[in-house]
Design brief:
Elements: H1 13-16, E1 28-33, H2 37-47, E2 52-58, H3 62-76, E3 82-84, H4 87-91, E4 98-101, H5 108-117, E5 121-124, H6 132-144, E6 149-151, H7 159-169, E7 176-183, H8 207-211, H9 243-246, H10 248-259, E8 265-274, E9 286-293, E10 298-303, E11 311-316, E12 319-323, E13 329-331, H11 334-337, H12 354-364, H13 372-391, E14 395-398, E15 403-404, H14 408-411
Parallel strand pairs: 1-2, 1-4, 2-3, 4-5, 5-6, 7-10
Antiparallel strand pairs: 7-11, 8-9, 8-14, 9-10, 11-12, 12-13, 14-15
Helix pairs in contact: 5-6, 6-13, 7-10, 10-13
């Protein structure tokens, strides 16, 4: 039986914007793709913005998406939001302006490209993509279809990281020579070297759709757990490059903000990497790498304490600045942190908040704080670190062609096979 939608004959003042709410014509209508931990955060943040209305959610797990739908409808005070199993049904809706993608990494590129081709602006979680080739496709698609894209490098919208990068770019530590980055390699509770028995796929879980372009593998609850649980997909090579990019891309991005977004890596050497030989986890869980940039700056990037502490340390000829993952700043001299950036000096992109910036950018049709090019640059550097780890040697990179220098073996790692029909 076909269903019908009945519209009220009396239009409330809120719909016209007369009760100090936002008129529908000035709202950004949004769909959420993925209902895990990170999109739970995005959901609440977007719900707090008066000029945004979430009208659709999508997830291959029925219980998850319906819980999201119900929470959104509760916040909106009516049956505004509809849930979908398949993202293609959500993207077919002409009344959706933008989507927020919070899925495992192997889905990011396909969803972002498909959404932009459907005329949607895109907020997509970090890392922007799984491979270098996917990242280039996302950048090209955003430009071709004139879409606003914000990737989830939220520290770009945090004042402390901007200030640290501005101090570096304006010479407060002299000439920048080195950057040291340290991040956690694996979350507490995740056990490397452990396998889990296959179990039946729960009712209401479209596991084939969850896998998407990834190879078919036996189901286990640990494989598909959400990020706020003891989650293993973060460290499985079918879906990610582990925390080298899954977490580290945040820190590498800020390092590159201080170095200069137009300065690219040319050589990468992952000197050591602990890649488990058995178990569900098969991405690097500890590593130590060195990245050389075009301007001669070197970035040493490692799992935390190997040897670097948490955060990003910029080292120059006249001092250093360190900013932690939580945004705490210290420096070789207190005078450095008292410095004021003058009106004629370099001022980096100022954002009022990552979500607010995304919405404002949609309305103004202007570049977002962490656009496709920024996301691709940071993710590519992480990909190169992971590729060097897999190859067990240094690699030379041509940032103009986005290929390795006379290295066919390395080039094979720049893309991946996708299971049919999930190809861009």
């Amino acid at each position: 039986m076909a269903s019908a939608v009945v519209f009220p004959s009396i239009v409330p003042a809120a719909a016209l914007g007369r009760d100090r709410t936002v008129a529908p014509s000035n709202r950004v209508t949004l769909g959420l793709i993925g209902t895990g931990n990170i999109n739970g955060h995005h959901r609440e943040t977007f719900l707090a913005e008066k000029d945004t209305r979430i009208v659709a959610v999508c997830d291959p797990v029925v219980t998850r998406r319906r819980a999201f739908r119900d929470r959104i409808n509760q916040a909106h005070g009516g049956d505004v939001c509809v849930d979908y199993r398949d993202f293609r049904d959500l993207l077919a809706r002409q009344d959706i302006d933008a989507v927020c993608i919070g899925t495992p990494d192997h889905w990011h590129a396909i969803l972002a490209v498909t959404a932009m081709r459907a005329g949607k602006d895109v907020y997509v979680e970090k890392p922007l993509t799984y491979t270098v080739a996917e990242g280039r496709r996302v950048v090209e698609t955003a430009a071709r279809y004139d879409r606003i894209l914000q990737t989830g490098l939220q520290r770009r919208s945090h004042g402390a990281y901007r200030y640290a990068s501005e101090l570096v770019r304006n010479g407060r530590i002299g000439r920048l020579t080195r950057v040291e980055v340290g991040i956690i390699g694996i979350n507490r509770g995740v056990q490397a070297g452990r396998n889990f028995p296959a179990t039946a796929v729960p009712e209401g879980f479209d596991y084939d759709l969850w896998l998407g372009p990834a190879p078919v593998t036996p189901f286990s609850p640990q494989r598909v757990a959400r990020g706020n649980e003891v989650c293993y997909w973060y460290y499985i090579s079918d879906y990610t490059t582990g925390f080298i990019s899954g977490n580290g891309v945040h820190f590498v991005d800020i390092a590159q903000w201080g170095i200069g977004d137009d300065v690219k890596p040319v050589e990468v050497h992952t000197h050591s990497a602990d890649i488990p030989a058995d178990g569900l986890v098969d991405d690097a869980i500890a590593w130590r790498s060195e990245v050389l940039y075009e301007n001669g700056v070197r970035m040493s990037y490692s799992s935390e304490g190997n040897p670097h502490p948490d955060g990003i340390r910029f080292v120059g000829t006249d001092g250093w600045i360190h900013i932690t993952g939580g945004g705490a700043l210290i420096a070789s001299s207190t005078d450095i942190l008292k410095s004021v950036i003058g009106p004629d000096e370099i001022h980096l992109y100022r954002s009022p908040g990552h979500h607010r910036n995304f919405l404002d950018s949609i309305k103004a049709r202007r570049r977002a704080a962490a656009g496709a090019d920024v996301g691709h640059h940071a993710t590519t550097t992480c990909n190169l670190v992971e590729i060097s780890a897999r190859l067990g040697r240094a690699v030379e990179w041509d940032p103009r062609t986005e290929r390795f220098a006379s290295d066919p073996e390395g080039d094979r790692w720049l893309s991946r096979a996708s299971r049919a029909p999930w190809r861009m």
